[in-house]
Amino acid sequence: QVQLVETGGGLVQAGGSLRLSCAASGRTSYTMAWFRQAPGADREFVAAITRNTDTTYYADSVTGRFSISRENTKNTMTLQMSSLKPEDAAVYYCAGRGPNYSGGYFSLKQYDFWGQGTQVTVSS
Fold first, then answer.
1. Which of 34, 39, 70, 75 could form a disulfide with 24 if both were Cys (CB 3.0 to 4.6 A apart)?
2. pLDDT confidence tier of residue 81, bands split at 50, 70 and 90
3. Do 63 and 80 touch, CB atoms closer than 8 A?
4. What is d(CA 124, CA 122) in angstroms, rounded to the nearest whole number?
């Protein structure tokens, strides 16, 4: 299996920026994504990016503020976050999947590989 490790989380004031990175060991994943989970809440979709076309998808809540990218050869993925809001505070998880999926970019059930998560805290 592919193993994923997230880095870059921390404390930032509202309106600030953070850059999260995900490093993958083993094979390069196909579609990869970022999810987030606040205390007591369900894990929710943030952004996704495909392998062959680099097509990106974003949750409505982050469109225009977050940018997802990947470097397939180096097995890395990045989430650049700007104009952060208090409601963006959560543990952010890197997710990946193999070749036997089609669509379903927004669903937790469509991903096989998960990182341990990195904490993002946004203060007012």
1. 75
2. very high
3. no
4. 7
Contact of 94 with 34, CB cutoff 8 Å: yes
Distance CA 28, CA 46 (A): 21
Check whether 88 has a pLDDT greater than 90.
yes
CB-neighbour burial class of residue 60 (10 A; exposed 0-12, middle 13-18, buried 19+): exposed
Residue found by looking up tokens 């097509």 in the block: 55
- Is pLDDT at 73 greater than 80 in this prediction? no
Which amino acid, one-letter code, is at 69?
S
Q: Dihedral of CA 67/119/117/37: which sign?
A: negative
CA angle 97, 99, 104 (to 5 degrees): 60
Burial of 18 (0-12, 13-18, 19+ CB in 10 A): buried
Phi, psi of 43 (to 5 degrees): -70, 130
